[in-house]
Amino acid sequence: MKQQDIDDLRQLIEFLKLHGVAEFDVDRGDLKIRLKFNQAETGPSNLHDLAGLLRSAAPAVPAHTAPPAHHAAAVAPAAPGPESAEQEVHIVKSPIVGTFYGSPSPGAEPFVTPGDHVEKGQVICIVEAMKLMNEIESDASGEIVRCLVTNGQPIEFGQPLYEIRQRS
Fold this sequence. Notes:
The chain is an alpha+beta fold and 168 residues long. Helix content is 18%, strand content 32%.
């Protein structure tokens, strides 16, 4: 395995660790990589251990595990922080597969930002699917805590998009 391939693999692992990615697959001809981390059992420290292991055992890594030149990863939702008895964090999930857009057009203000109050039925983003722009509405009222995806990111059905703090 070339040093550049080892460096690319290290960079991939650091990217996965930074973004809390739970699962990663790539299949390019004879190159197959599958990384899957159980979030309940495997935390960022174990990803760090994996990166350290690769550094110390670089020559022992088989050539068929070289990373691709371009890699894509889905961002896994972060666990919500501690909540008080009067607040509940609700996760808005994507109802379709497509590409996430947080604003109505490039350069426009986003539909919502953390700290904004939203009402049930309010448009909070767009998911483009098959050249159609689908407005996604909030399925809960409350305060946007954070957006869990980035603009232009491919998303899956049921993928968490936003955290909304509901007040009871």
